[in-house]
Design goal:
The structure holds 2 protein chains of 2 kinds. Chain A is built from 20 helices and 31 strands. Chain A is an alpha+beta fold. In chain A, α10 packs parallel to α11, α15 runs parallel beside α16 and α18 crosses α19. In chain B, a hairpin with a 2-residue loop joins β3 and β4. The longest helix of chain B has 16 residues. Classes of the chains: A alpha+beta, B alpha+beta. At the A-B interface, α2 and α18 of A face α2, α3, α4, α5 and α6 of B. The complex binds FE2/S2 (inorganic) cluster (2 copies). One FE2/S2 (inorganic) cluster (FES) binds next to loops of chain B.
């Protein structure tokens, strides 16, 4: 740490990302841009029914189409690629059914792949798909989570006995006693709609199996290359070292590209079967029915409060529908698990009880998406806090302040067992009030009401789970690395090449790592080249998810940087015949530690070490490639915190919500690159706003997706989005030398709650409130009794 | 049965003659026929703007045009526009503001922004937002993109 604190450091600088030049020139290389000799394309026959038996598949006509190379069914693929079950051992009693690359026997959601057509071009493969005849026997579809467990509801996977994937009860203190002693009890039911990631680059994979060496090389738009390598090796029966996964440019991921998808596994299996490269790029229509969906929840919440606003206790009952399979290997229970564990975490009350039921249904599988569980947890909690304030006629700011876990309470363990080293709720709140001029906005809101202009302000405090250790997946048996490695090599020219296990999907991972390495070693950032996303060359790691890039990858880079610095100084001391302690590295030169006088150029050091080691002492061996690893050992997660404020205007005639402005103050520990953090926060907030106001995967009762195009499924576009102001509090973690925590999901965690509260604030004069999302004009008008 | 049709056009200033299937979209022709992979495909139904290119000087959605419609036209892609230096200042501003994260929307954003600035050199932030509202970006939240375009407009106004 000393070097970072001594100045001459890039930590805390808004360095411009050098990697953007390529993307700005149209020279990015996304997976679909990669072309290999003899490459084939695959398109999938997908189930048109939510639930149906396949009586027969006739591919005769497709096979005779010129350009079609193969038509493959689930039965034919099953011997080559073994199936999988998406459960984790530490989720007791969790169950799911065996899933395969292509469905065998029956399809369980509309869009499930059931056969593959491989052809010389994607267009011909699609022609082939339209010529495959499947004879279907439709089965009743299970769509409503509310009735999924009723005895009269068909069981989707009869071998499981019922439609329950997982259930969990949590108890802290005595919630029932707290409710008995309360002055007021508030009850609310929240309905949160399904949405999805809509990465602009759809999922894409190109698998290239070489039968002569039995090696598989896979180009993949993905977040976690080592995880994919492990899974492909195990399910295709290949030695791990013969599977190489390369993630080049990735056009957005947000948790969509970290799961195992049947169509992607099928593409790799086809390459093994055919011995040729096979590419699959999802089109937008299949993205909507095959990318994981997120956040279908029904949450019943009850809050017990005293007249002065003190929260005494809370009860929560979360019901979540996850589609027909728990998604492999992370499972679809993590979302609900996190929701009920996170909900009370901002506040100090102890009496909390929660229930979670995760049920199967015939819709697209649901799994972790940016800010897993958080947006639901804090929308519920913060809506309840605002409602308490409104009904008790108290200031929402003061109710929060009264109930926060406060500065002197750290370290603190939450009601549900989360450990908080140190959070900064009060400072964040103070800063938010200041930068937003909150009181003036309140006064303006009140003044406008007289003129029938209905504006609202909504606060949403949150915590964010970042930098997860092995307790997240590893203990449950999922082979997902929580540690990451970093390798740095001094090139003979004196420049550094750095390889890291964390990956880049636009966050600026490369830049952040280069900043840390350059600072730790003492060289200019331009002299550090960072490489990510290639399992053959990068040290083993988990990739990028759960805001782990800076907290884990950054710390690994710092430790590696320090280690190679020490080794460089040993070489320098051998050349200069002095002690390493007498020397330092500054701006890429070996200098006298005391006087700063330049003693040796790194290029000269590299020349001697690599080409003239004969001039060094006989017993001296230079080590100019260094690898270090890091895993958080001292706490399960590095929690961060923050608070958001949304300012909206509701048109009570049309029900339309206009976003006026949005603020966020967050605390992600020591900040490596302020601009990159701000832009993570802004992008994430807009994703949260999308969920709050626009994005909705609507199904009919037969399990048919009604919003399967970008015409029907609304995403946030530039014109509707507000200006977003970001502020920071910096509370570094003391458990890692760098002090870094994560920042990628905080925006999404708090935005929906802030918008929901702002809309309800605007509707308060009418005694109306909304409790579902997305908050469409229809939802608003219904709340107002106008529909 | 070969339905291919012969077309001749210029792409980024270079004369190109190819036989293309009548059903092939312009963006697929550019990406797969000419290996100009800077134009991206995000939706193939005209909503996201990732496929934006210029046809005879006007921006167009490469997924909503067929390659055969461009017979005799002048087509420009991000590779060409970046290559001539025409959008150099805009690219610099995007880098400076971190107006791109994954970069998938970026070629379309740059071409759309350049078109706006040609038509309305003094565009306001709200006008920029409206002009870009046919270009989807999932990563940035748009704030930085709007800033980058606004600052480029200002700088061009001063020049
Ligand atoms: S790909 Fe053309 S507008 Fe989306
Ligand atoms: S930067 Fe990723 S979509 Fe815009």
């Amino acid at each position: 740490m000393s070097r970072i604190e001594k100045g001459r450091s890039y930590i805390g600088e808004s360095v411009v990302r050098p990697q953007t030049a390529r993307l700005l020139a149209g020279r990015g290389v996304f997976t679909d841009d990669v072309v290999l000799p003899r490459m084939l394309h695959v398109a999938f026959v997908r189930s048109p029914h939510a639930h149906a038996r396949m009586l027969s598949i006739d591919s005769t006509e497709a096979r005779t189409l010129p350009g079609v190379v193969a038509v493959v069914t689930g039965e034919e693929m099953a011997p080559v690629c073994s199936g999988w079950v998406g459960t984790l051992a530490h989720f007791q009693g969790m169950k799911s059914a065996m899933q395969r690359p292509l469905a065998v026997g029956k399809a369980s959601w509309q869009g499930e792949p059931v056969a593959a057509v491989v052809a010389e071009s994607r267009a011909i493969a699609e022609d082939g798909v339209s010529r495959v005849r499947v004879e279907w026997e439709p089965l009743p579809a299970v769509t409503d989570p509310e009735t999924a467990l009723d005895p009269s509801t068909p069981v989707i996977h009869p071998e499981l006995g019922d439609n329950l994937a997982f259930k969990l009860e949590l108890k802290s203190g005595d919630a029932d006693a707290a409710f008995k002693s309360a002055d007021a009890v508030l009850t609310e039911t929240f309905t949160m709609g399904r949405h999805t990631g809509v990465t602009l680059e759809a999922r894409a994979i190109l698998a290239d199996f070489d039968p002569s060496e039995r090696r598989l090389t896979v180009y993949h738009s993905f977040q976690s290359p080592n995880m994919m390598q492990d899974i492909l090796a195990r399910h295709l029966g290949l030695p791990e070292q013969d599977v190489r996964v390369i993630c080049k440019d990735v056009g957005g991921s947000f948790g969509i590209k970290v799961h195992i998808y049947p169509d992607e596994m099928a593409t790799c299996t086809l390459s093994v079967m055919l011995g040729r490269p096979v590419k699959f790029t999802a089109d937008r229509l299949e993205s909507f029915v095959s990318d994981i969906h997120a956040r279908e929840h029904r949450v019943k919440a009850e809050l017990a409060v005293k007249r002065d606003g003190t929260i005494l206790g809370m009860r929560v009952d979360d019901l979540s529908g996850i589609g027909p399979y728990s998604v492999y290997p992370r499972t679809s229970a993590v979302e609900g698990n996190q929701t009920i564990r996170l909900t009370p975490g901002v506040y100090r009350f102890r009496d909390y009880s929660a229930r979670l039921s995760v049920v199967f249904q015939n819709k697209t599988p649901m799994c972790q998406y940016r800010a897993v569980g958080h947006p639901i947890a804090f929308a519920v909690m913060e809506a309840m806090v605002d409602r308490a304030a409104r009904e008790l006629n108290l200031d929402p700011v003061e109710v929060r302040r009264k109930n926060y876990v406060t500065a002197e309470m750290y370290p603190h363990t939450s009601q549900t067992g989360y450990f908080f080293e140190r959070l900064s709720h009060e400072e964040a709140l103070d800063k938010l009030l200041e930068i937003s001029d909150y009181r003036a906005l309140c006064a303006e809101r009140d003044a406008r009401r007289a003129h029938r202009v209905y504006r609202g302000l909504g606060l949403c405090a949150f915590i964010e789970l970042t930098t997860p250790g092995p307790a997240f997946y590893g203990v449950g048996g999922a082979r997902i690395s929580s540690q990451d490695g970093c390798t740095i090599k001094l090139e003979p020219s004196g420049k550094l090449t750095c390889m890291t296990g964390v990956t880049e999907q636009g966050q600026g991972t490369d830049t952040m790592i280069a900043q840390v390495v350059a600072s730790a070693v003492g060289v200019a950032m331009e002299d550090v080249r960072v490489l990510t996303g290639d399992t053959m060359v990068s040290p083993y790691g988990g990739g990028t998810w759960a805001s782990r890039g800076a907290g884990i990858g950054g710390e690994a880079a710092l430790q590696t940087g320090k280690a190679i610095r020490a080794n460089i100084l040993k070489v320098a001391a051998a050349i200069l015949q002095c002690e390493p302690e007498d020397l330092d590295i500054r701006l890429g030169k070996i200098v006298d530690a005391l006087t700063g006088e330049v003693r040796l150029d790194l290029a000269e050091l590299g020349r001697v070490a690599y080409f003239r080691p004969d001039t060094l002492p006989k017993d001296f061996q230079s080590e100019l490639t260094v690898t270090r690893h890091y895993v958080p050992r001292h706490q399960g997660f590095a929690f961060t915190n923050g608070i958001q404020l949304s300012h909206v205007e509701v048109d009570v005639e049309t029900g339309f919500v206009r976003l006026l402005k949005h603020w966020c103050v967050e605390d992600c520990g020591r900040i490596i690159n302020p601009r990159l953090v701000d832009e993570q926060i802004r992008g994430a907030i807009v994703q949260g706003i999308g969920a709050a106001l626009y994005e909705h995967l609507v199904y009919d009762e037969q399990g048919q997706l009604l919003t399967g195009t970008m015409m029907d499924y609304l995403v946030p576009m530039a014109a509707e989005m507000p200006e977003i102001v970001v502020g920071h509090v910096e509370t570094p973690t003391a458990y890692a030398e760098g002090g870094f925590k994560g920042a990628g999901e905080a925006g999404t965690a708090g935005a929906p709650g802030a918008v929901l509260n702002a809309v309800n604030d605007a509707l308060a004069p009418f005694g109306a409130r909304v409790t579902s999302q997305p908050i469409t004009p229809e939802v608003v008008l219904k709340a107002l009794g106008a529909l | 049965m070969d339905l291919a049709i012969q077309i001749s056009l210029t792409v980024n200033g270079v004369a190109v003659s190819r036989r293309v299937e009548p059903r092939q979209s312009l963006v697929d022709f550019l990406r797969y026929g000419l290996e100009l992979t800077g134009s991206h495909v995000g939706c193939e139904h005209g909503v996201c703007g990732a496929c934006t290119v210029r046809v005879d000087g006007a921006i167009a959605r490469g997924c909503l045009m067929l390659a055969v419609q461009c017979d005799g036209c002048r087509v420009e892609t991000i590779e060409g526009v970046a290559g001539t230096g025409e959008v150099f200042d805009l690219q610099q501003a995007f880098a400076q503001e971190n107006a791109l994260q994954c970069g998938f929307c970026t070629p379309g954003m740059l071409l759309t922004a350049q078109d706006l600035l040609a038509r309305k050199p003094a565009a306001s932030a709200q006008e920029i937002r409206e002009a870009l509202s046919g270009n989807y970006c999932r990563c940035t939240g748009y704030h930085a993109i709007v800033e980058a375009v606004r600052k480029t407009a200002e700088a061009r106004g001063r020049a």
